[in-house]
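Example record used in the benchmark description.
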Amino acid sequence: EAVRLGDDAAERMLDDTSRKPLQRIERLLRHYWRERRVAIVLDDFEQNLEIPGVGEARLGPLAAAVLEVLLPVCRDEQPKLLVTSTARFALPAHLGGALVDLPLGALDGASMRKLWVRGRSAELSGVGPGAWSTLCERFGRNARILDWVRQLLGGKTPEEVRKVMADAGKALPVWKEPLDEAKQDEVVAVCLRHMAFEDAARKVGPDAMAFIDRARVYEVPVPVDAFAGLTDGLALSLDQHVPALANLGLLEMGSEGGRAVYRVSPLVKPAFDAADGETWHGVAAEYWWKAAVQEGGWSAPGVLQAWAHALAAKRQDIADQAADLVGAQRAQLVGGQ
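Model output (C-alpha cells):
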C-alpha cells in the first residue's frame, strides 16, 4: 500500500531495520497511519493454525505474534483487520472480543474460481476449470471440504490418484474431464473418509465416528446441548470435541439466535444409519419437545420435529402430545375461518 501510494515516509518506517518487522508495522498503523481507512486482510488464515482434537484451533507462534500487534491497533485506530478462515480459533483472553464472527455460507462462483486460480500452478495443475467447477458443486461449495479436495488432487497424475483411492479401499475409473458423476462420488468418499475420518480418529479419538453416526439423527442444525444424550458410552466431551469436529469438517456450523448450531454434513453421512437408531431418535424427540414447548407458547416446527422423531423412536408419549398440540392448533384455525 505504501509503494502503491508513493508514500515515502511509510516506506522508510517499514524499511527501518533498527526495529523488528512487527514493531515497524505497529508504529506505522498506530501513529503515521492511525487515521487512514485501510483494510488489512489475512486470507486463508487456517494455514497458520494448529487444529487439535480438543476444542478450537490454536494460533501458531507467528500468527499469535501478528495478532498481538494488529488486533489492539485495529481496535483503537482507523485501520481495520479482516481474517478469513475455514476453522474457528481461540484468541488469548486479553484479546477476547477483538474479532467478531461473521459465518459465511457456501462459496459463490467468483470464490470457487479464485481457489482454482490459486492452485492451477500447483495442486490443481491437472484439473481444468470445468472439472473444478463441477467438483465444487458436488461438494456443496463447502470451503473446508474444497480445501481437502485441493490437498487430495494435489497435482497428482491419474496413477497417483488411483493409489490414493486404493489406499481408501476404492477402485478408480479412468480420469476424465469433466468428471462423471460416479467418479465425483468416489472422490467425495475418499476425500471425507480417507482424510477426515482418519484425522478425527487420530485427533479426537476412536469414538469420534460413533458420535458422528449418532448425531446424524438431526436433519437440521441444533445447538450443542441437543447432542447431550448421544454420548452415552463414548469418551467425548461436547464442549471440547464438537468445535474440534467442526474444524475437521465433519460437522457443519452456523449461527441461530446468537448461538452456534451444528449438524453432520450430508456429504459425511448421506443418511442416518446408526446402530440402535430408536434410542437416538428418542434423544432427538426429547430435545425437540423440550425446546418446542416453552412456558407461554410453543413452536410448530419444533413440535413437528419432536413428533417425527417420536414416531421413529416409538415414543408414543411424545408423539401423542405433539399430535394433540398440532390438532388443537388446526381446530382453532378451522374454527376461525
